[in-house]
């Protein structure tokens, strides 16, 4: 079947839906599984699926591994083990929509980080977009208390997820800067493998994964299977198909649908955000669009 631009848009939206649903589904995984163990189970499924596709699509090239193994390990530790460990640990106390909004700011921070590495001043609109989006996230986190000049408490999970999103930004930039002569699929496969191995050692050190897995409920294991196959492998493949057909720039804007899908799913589950949180969601999304260059100030004011 020929992948048309219209089909590419549909596949990209499906990918962002999977990513958006991860935040809610992870809550089910954490109902009976500790966070590091749940993360290991997720990547057990993801690594198997991605390597089957990797071997079929490109063939496993040992030369790429020999040339980049140090970078694969470091980036796997930061972007896979670090980000996903923070994701699972943080969601023990963070709200799924808040977590999705925090992660949605990572493309902007990655662009700013890349500009710093290249010793270039970050674009003004990227900085403005980051400030606006973080303001929106702060409104959601504090349930509007920020507008009243007081903040009673910020969930520890929100801080952990923010640190994880910075790790994802470092991973995103690192794959462009430190990886040589590797395809995106190969880079993802190898960093995912090494990240999963590191997650396994962490789980063994801080938890009892075998005991936890044997006592986990069917619903939690099913959630890990969903996140591993749908929320990791299929989402990545569909996203890359969109990039291949429509280009990275035209596809990147769809990443902003991740928190929107997370919000829609939360509402469908009967958890309605407060008015200040709705305002914070809108501000965050506008900030992300501005930071990624998807809209400009002139277009924004003309639309108001």
TrEMBL record:
Its main location: membrane. Pfam families: EamA. It comes from the Bacteria. Residues 7-141, 156-290 form the EamA domain. InterPro entries: AA-Vitamin_Transporters (IPR050638), EamA_dom (IPR000620), EmrE-like (IPR037185). One of its GO terms (cellular component) is plasma membrane. SUPFAM superfamilies: Multidrug resistance efflux transporter EmrE. The chain crosses the membrane at residues 39-56, 68-91, 97-117, 124-142, 154-173, 185-206, 218-239, 251-269, 275-295. Keywords: Cell membrane, Membrane, Transmembrane, Transmembrane helix. The keyword Cell membrane applies. It is found in: Cell membrane. It is a multi-pass membrane protein. The keyword Transport does not apply. Belongs to the drug/metabolite transporter (DMT) superfamily. 10 TMS drug/metabolite exporter (DME) (TC 2.A.7.3) family. This is Threonine/homoserine exporter RhtA.
């Amino acid at each position: 079947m020929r992948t048309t631009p219209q089909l590419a848009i549909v596949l990209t939206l499906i990918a962002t839906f999977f990513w958006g649903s991860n935040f809610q589904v992870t809550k089910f995984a954490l109902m009976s599984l500790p966070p590091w163990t749940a993360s290991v189970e997720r990547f057990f499924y993801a690594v198997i699926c991605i390597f089957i596709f990797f071997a079929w699509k490109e063939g496993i090239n040992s030369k790429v591994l020999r040339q980049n193994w140090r970078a694969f390990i470091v980036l796997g530790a930061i972007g896979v083990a670090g980000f996903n460990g923070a994701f699972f640990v943080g969601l023990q106390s963070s709200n799924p929509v808040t977590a999705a909004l925090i992660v949605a700011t990572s493309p902007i921070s990655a662009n700013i980080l890349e500009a710093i590495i290249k010793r270039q001043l970050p674009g003004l609109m990227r900085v403005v977009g980051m400030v606006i989006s973080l303001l929106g996230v702060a409104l959601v986190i504090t349930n509007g208390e920020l507008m009243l000049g007081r903040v009673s408490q910020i969930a520890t999970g929100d801080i952990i997820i923010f640190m994880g999103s910075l790790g994802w930004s470092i991973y995103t930039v690192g794959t462009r800067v430190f990886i040589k002569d590797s395809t995106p699929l190969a880079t993802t496969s190898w960093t995912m493998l090494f990240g999963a191995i590191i997650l396994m050692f962490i789980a063994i050190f801080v938890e009892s994964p075998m005991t936890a897995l044997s006592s986990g409920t069917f619903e939690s294991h099913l959630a890990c299977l969903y996140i591993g196959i749908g929320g990791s492998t299929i989402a990545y493949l569909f996203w890359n198909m969109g990039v291949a057909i429509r280009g990275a720039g035209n596809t990147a804007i769809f990443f902003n649908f991740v928190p929107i899908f997370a919000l829609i799913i939360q509402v469908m589950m009967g958890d309605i955000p407060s008015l200040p949180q709705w305002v914070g969601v809108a501000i965050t999304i506008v900030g992300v669009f501005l930071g990624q260059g998807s809209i400009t100030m002139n277009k924004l004011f003309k639309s108001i």
